[in-house]
Write a structure and sequence with these properties.
Blueprint: H1 3-9, H2 14-21, H3 34-46, E1 53-59, H4 63-74, E2 77-83, H5 90-94, H6 96-107
Parallel strand pairs: 1-2
Length: 126
């Protein structure tokens, strides 16, 4: 995702837009799913060991499992910023998203080395 598209898509405040320009917000480039996003972010945070909290920006539907995976992968406090206007409804909670959350819950109980990721996916130094 290009930074300018990110600003428009998530309607970033001026403060967050400035953080993006200053490199304080990093856009994931390698990860292809929620688990890989959490692992990739944990890799980045390994380069900044004094980081105590991060801001996770995602949709309301995706937030429960994304924040769970990120917290368990990195051990930092996860602040949440929900985007979009779609409200959760009962059918969303009882269908696929619920089972994705349950799967994420169980996967993240394992050591991170055992989390499912594509072959060759690993921390890469920039």
């Amino acid at each position: 995702m290009k930074p300018e598209n990110f600003v428009r898509q998530f309607n970033l405040s001026t403060v967050l837009e400035d953080y993006l320009k200053a490199g304080r917000i990093t856009l994931a480039a390698e990860a292809q799913d929620t688990i890989e996003n959490a692992l990739e972010t944990s890799c980045w945070l390994g380069e900044y060991p004094r980081t105590e909290r991060v801001l996770l920006i995602t949709s309301q539907l995706h937030m429960p499992r994304a924040s769970l995976a990120l917290r368990r992968a990195s051990g930092v406090r996860v602040e949440r910023l929900v985007t979009g206007t779609v409200a959760l409804n009962a059918s969303d909670l009882v269908t696929a998203e619920f089972w994705k959350y349950v799967g994420t819950l169980f996967v993240t109980l394992l050591p991170t080395q055992m989390w499912p990721a594509r072959r060759g996916f690993s921390c890469k130094k920039s």
